[in-house]
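Checklist before submission:
- one chain only
- standard amino acids only
- sequence pasted in full

Submission:
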Amino acid sequence: MEFVTFEDETGVVEATFFPDAYRRFCARLDYGRPYLLSGKADEQFGATTLTVDEVQNL
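Returned file contents:
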């Protein structure tokens, strides 16, 4: 499992990659590139997290 922080002009999202998703998408991740992430969003204790199901490079 990997935890990755993504940031844009609107804020910060903590993303969780479970092992299968991380294996599929780790080669696409590179600092400073834009991505379209999809998955399940959850908010707890004022923090939003995203469990990633899909990553697309923009």
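Reviewer check: The CA atoms of residues 44 and 50 lie 11 Å apart.
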